Amino acid sequence: MSTVVNVRGLRMKYGATEVLRGVDLDIGRGEIFTLLGPNGAGKTTTIEILEGFRKRSAGEVNVLGADPERGTKAWQAKLGIVLQSWRDHPRWSARDLLAHLGEFYDDPRDPDELLAALGLTAQAAQQVSRLSGGQRRRLDVALGIVGRPELLFLDEPTTGFDPEARREFHLLVEKLAADDGMTVLLTTHDLAEAEKLAHRTAILVNGEIAVCGTPAELADAVQTQSRVRWLEDGQERVQATSDPSQVAWELHRRFDGPVPGLEIRRPSLEESYLSLIGRAA
Ligand SMILES: Nc1ncnc2c1ncn2[C@@H]1O[C@H](COP(=O)(O)OP(=O)(O)OP(=O)(O)O)[C@@H](O)[C@H]1O
């Protein structure tokens, strides 16, 4: 897999305050990568440096083959950027805004197809200022992908989405990554979203990447114990263990065959995350 984002030893200071203290990241083409972390961990700062909006204090950063501090117009055209909030063009209709922004790109997506993909067909002619919060957010995402970016940055994209819109959005991101090979870097506070959507997640704590990996690797890394449940003498039994296969094997031997009601539950990303933050705090 070719690397789209490569970061080594990234440091950022605001005045005397060091916000990033040596961040390393590698993101491959077509990957959906999530940056998680508590408020103030440095997620937006990291993304802004990768987008070329902010000058770093130290470290090596390469995004789509270029240093973002020296990104050309052609380089910028390969990025899709969805900020936490846009305050623009309130009197434009949703469709006109998309069509207008699309004119800046060589091969823009069709505005009507985009609106349909984001469930906004009924709002096509509506003024941007009259959209609901969730509709506005979906339009933001449409604006981010109208130019068929190679790399899409999404800063907390699903804030304000209802469950249906969230599900549709996840399907769209998965499709864009799978079909078009688009790479997606998103920040979220929704741990279930990271678990559902991300191929890999990095957890930023105090300006450092505490853990990086697939949801399963994250769970392993923080070693929250799995729970093994089974039925015995008509009662549910539960055992917490770091080696559920060992427990299951012992149970299988003890029962001399299949274990009634056997269930092994790995810790969710949320449990792992909270234990990590608790440990690091
Ligand atoms: N322009 C700035 N000048 C000074 N300090 C800043 C500036 N921007 C951000 N900070 C500080 O840097 C730290 C990291 O901020 P950042 O916005 O990157 O965090 P975040 O992880 O995105 O947080 P959130 O989840 O709340 O959006 C915070 O303590 C913030 O107050």
From TrEMBL:
Pfam families: ABC_tran
Chief location bin: membrane
UniProt topology in membrane: Peripheral membrane protein
Domain of life (superkingdom): Bacteria
Keywords carried by this UniProt record: Antibiotic resistance, ATP-binding, Nucleotide-binding, Transport
Domain ABC transporter, chain residue ranges per copy: 5-231
GO MF annotation: an example: ATP binding
Subcellular location field: Cell membrane
Keyword Magnesium attributed: no
SMART domains: AAA
Similarity comment: Belongs to the ABC transporter superfamily.
Protein name: ABC-2 type transport system ATP-binding protein
The organism's taxonomic lineage, starting at the top: Bacteria, Bacillati, Actinomycetota, Actinomycetes, Streptosporangiales
